[in-house]
UniProtKB/TrEMBL annotation:
It comes from Pseudomonas frederiksbergensis. It comes from the Bacteria. This is DUF1654 domain-containing protein.
Length: 83
């Protein structure tokens, strides 16, 4: 029997997928060296989930978010933020 996902569970899943994708990008060895990454929302990602994840990252101490044209963001931390 198939299960139908509720809108609330879809939003939570989308939020988690956005968060995991950004986490993987940030964890990449090359990104860790420069301590900055530029990320854009994928077409299949919920705009609400994207905004929520970016807002939560923005509230993190030691992290700077720069909003770029086209909706992308540049996430920087530590040395990048001090430059």
């Amino acid at each position: 029997m198939s299960q139908i996902a509720s809108p609330a569970s879809h939003a939570r899943d989308s939020y988690e997928l956005v968060g995991r994708r950004i986490q993987r990008l940030i964890a990449a060895p090359g990104v860790q060296k420069v301590q900055v990454v530029t990320v854009a929302r994928n077409d299949d990602e919920s705009p609400e989930a994207w905004r929520q994840v970016i807002q939560e990252i923005e509230e993190t101490s030691g992290v700077r978010i720069e909003h770029l044209d086209g909706g992308a963001v540049r996430i920087g931390w530590r040395q990048y933020c001090e430059a």
